[in-house]
Amino acid sequence: xxxxxxxxxxxxxxxxxxxxxxxxxxxxxxxxxxxxxxxxxxxxxxxxxxxxxxxxxxxxxxxxxxxxxxxxxxxxxxxxxxxxxxxxxxxxxxxxxxxxxxxxxxxxxxxxxxxxxxxxxxxxxxxxxxxxxxxxxxxxxxxxxxxxxxxxxxxxxxxxxxxxxxxxxxxxxxxxxxxxxxxxxxxxxxxxxxxxxxxxxxxxxxxxxxxxxxxxxxxxxxxxxxxxxxxxxxxxxxxxxxxxxxxxxxxxxxxxxxxxxxxxxxxxxxxxxxxxxxxxxxxxxxxxxxxxxxxxxxxxxxxxxxxxxxxxxxxxxxxxxxxxxxxxxxxxxxxxxxxxxxxxxxxxxxxxxxxxxxxxxxxxxxxxxxxxxxxxxxxxxxxxxx
Length: 386
Ligand code: GLA
Known about the structure:
The protein is of the alpha+beta class. It has 11 helices and 13 strands. It has helices spanning 3-16, 89-103, 127-142, 149-164, 171-178, 220-239, 251-256, 263-287, 291-308, 314-323, 352-367; strands at 22-31, 43-44, 46-59, 64-69, 74-79, 111-117, 183-188, 193-198, 204-210, 329-334, 342-348, 372-375, 383-384. The strands form 3 sheets. A 6-stranded mixed sheet has the order 5-4-6-3-1-13, with helices on both faces. Strands 10-11-9-12 form a 4-stranded antiparallel sheet. Strands 2-7-8 form a 3-stranded antiparallel sheet, sandwiched between helices. A hairpin with a 4-residue loop joins strand 4 and strand 5 (74-79). It is globular. The structure holds alpha-D-galactopyranose. Residues 35-36, 38-39, 126, 168-169, 171-172, 217, 336-337 line the site of alpha-D-galactopyranose (GLA).
């Protein structure tokens, strides 16, 4: 936990408003494997991480919502009943949460909130889910709504669909809320059943390498992938009416409708079907301590994301490719929505410095700007911390 950041946020709140605020920590997330499977009702294997967004919040006795972004030094105010989305980009995530909660029939009033964090924006660690989850818990706590965790994850996702315009799956909000220290959690995105597994990596750790290429999920590409998957399902359903989603299909069935779909749709569906199988295998390999096979699955996942799903970019491909020559790295892949952000690599803990010293000059030479490194440990999900 970043105590100094939390203290600064609390201090700022006290400067602006009076009283002792409620304090909340809402983390970003990593995903070990299972990318673009959530909105296809498949499996994902995320963890909450140490970078987080911290919130200080308190009630007001009118109906105003006053939001202060500590990082942007920016302020936004609206009436709780206001129907227009604020023009500040960052505020739309939070405004959306206040709307969805009210649409669900909960009565809430005005409140003050100062927030800021160390989740890098655009790095694929889901700063947006952290924002949504943190505010949701703040409102639930301030107004005694007792929202349950899954309901909060769904509120965050709905806000993202309706107020940000990204038709995301449930993974990011789920991970930010349900994360557990030293554990990853496998979520079945069909029935929302989940299972924690202790992360036992022997002398290995996960490292994130941030390509510093800013992805924009709001860019139409993410929503296009969703539509392409839906096209595949439609073609499959004609022949196999029992198929409700790509989760239900296998490669043989997909091959049997090859004449009905474009090559692109075929590739997208193939990737998703294979990735679902990889998540299941990855969970078994983790449980059996077979890190070598887990690493191979990471490379296979990347290959599919890059060649079939086409959500990688040259910088991410470069980073993954270079690790193949490093015998102290078992596997690596791009992580999150894609088109930039981070790679996730499984690396021998005592080789971390050697890795950084090798990759940084290579990357800088190739792309003319640096990459950045983050350790990726599993931490607790969104919670009240004061
Ligand atoms: C983004 C979305 C998630 C998920 C990932 C890809 O992070 O918000 O729902 O689809 O991309 O796995």
